[in-house]
Design goal:
mainly alpha; 12 helices
Length: 402
């Protein structure tokens, strides 16, 4: 069946895919193998990986080990460096995880464009448009938040010190940083935007997919809720009885639900590893950032550093919450489908259709839970537990510091 596509559902993920193409990490190229463009794309990807994702965290890690070995390291400085190293390692691991699921990602993008989703979206254009705006707003919010926070750390704080110190502590072993201070400073300022854009793209990608899934569940709920009225209209248009009209429309609802389940399975296959990385790394980073925050000496004289550290910790907590919130929303909204089906006036239906309703209710009452490869559910309950573990870790580290 062909449907007039007044909506472009691909817009839910168009910004993320556009950013991946800009960064050179989109997996599907139209270049023939071993052509000049193909070789150039590979070289750009290698250079970006080396100078953006390997050298910076490697240099920071070497500096951290040497600084600790010197015996001059303070807990605040150690915690701050661990935060930056873990953040950059998180970006690297999320990118590698996405690269390892290229086939599933292609399937996911194809599913968003399926006719079944378009057919139901055309009935609920306002709802889909609102969900699309929310998806893009979250992308912009995360991008602005991360850029602002990094700008404070990389530009404003060094500016307060007269640009006499590097934004990031690195040890490049064979390169004398003091001798090439200006070049190193420029390098640290320039590579950060690539890290930020990659991080924002990878984190907002599953959010957009989950917003799309929850919106489709909402659309299905509204369709079933208005099914009685739709059946009457269909009976008048097709001149048929209620059972025939119900069978046709109810079958479409069941098919729509199957498409949603398949899409959620694809989201879990592509982003399940990313969810697990976020849970683990964000918990560790928030914990060490809390130690760094309470270790700042003379807070009134270090307002800029205090603001940056708190904003950094807040952004990570929000990211973790959004993951868990939309994972929980998928479960909650799927349960609501069974309520809508049961509310239908099914008493006048044939025994066959009553049994079909009963089977579908049973199917929608099965929990639709997003999980990580560690079998940890992505839910608000998990968010609460992770934050509880984070606080316990902070209490232990803070006690060791004292």
């Amino acid at each position: 069946m062909k449907v007039e596509k007044k909506l472009n559902l691909f817009e839910f993920i168009s910004w993320q895919i556009g950013a991946l193409r800009y960064l050179g990490f989109w997996f599907y190229k139209s270049y023939p193998t071993m052509s000049v463009n193909y070789v150039l794309a590979i070289l750009i990807r290698i250079c970006t990986g080396l100078f953006v994702f390997i050298i910076p965290p490697g240099g920071e890690l070497i500096y951290l080990f040497r600084h600790i070995a010197s015996g001059k390291a303070e807990i605040q400085e150690i915690a701050g460096m661990i935060n930056l190293i873990l953040t950059e390692l998180l970006v690297v691991m999320m990118l590698l995880n996405l690269c390892s699921h290229g086939a599933q990602l292609k399937k996911l993008t194809d599913q968003i464009l399926s006719v079944e989703f378009y057919k139901f979206s055309m009935v609920h254009i306002k709802s889909v448009t609102a969900a699309l705006k929310l998806s893009k707003w979250l992308y912009i919010y995360l991008l602005v938040s991360c850029v602002s926070d990094i700008a404070v750390h990389v530009i404003i704080v060094p500016g307060i010190n007269g640009f006499q110190t590097l934004p990031l502590k690195m040890d490049l072993i064979y390169i004398d940083i003091d001798k090439y201070f200006s070049i190193t400073f420029a390098y640290q300022v320039l590579y950060k935007p690539f890290i930020v854009l990659t991080f924002v793209t990878l984190k907002s990608f599953p959010w957009s997919c989950l917003i799309f899934a929850t919106n489709q569940l909402d659309n299905l709920y509204k369709t079933i809720e208005n099914l009685k009225h739709t059946v009457k209209i269909f009976m008048d248009e097709k001149d048929c009885d209620e059972n025939t009209a119900f069978e046709k429309l109810f079958r479409e609802c069941v098919q729509h639900h199957n498409y949603i389940l398949s899409f959620v399975d694809s989201v879990q296959a592509v982003f399940g590893g990313q969810f697990a990385l976020t849970l683990i790394f964000n918990a560790c980073i928030i914990c060490t950032t809390s130690v760094q925050f309470v270790s700042i000496q003379s807070p009134s004289e270090n307002i800029s550093e205090l603001t940056w550290v708190f904003a950094f910790m807040f952004i990570l907590a929000v990211i973790l919450f959004v993951d868990c919130y939309y994972g929980d929303s998928v479960t909650t909204k799927n349960f609501k489908i069974s309520e809508a089906v049961y509310s239908y006036k099914w008493m006048d239906l044939s025994l066959k259709h009553k049994r079909n309703l009963q089977i579908f209710i049973g199917k929608t009452q099965m929990p639709l839970v997003l999980t990580t490869p560690l079998l940890v559910p992505i839910s608000l309950d998990t968010f609460t537990k992770v934050m509880n573990w984070t606080y316990k870790g902070f209490a232990i580290l803070n006690q060791m510091k004292e």
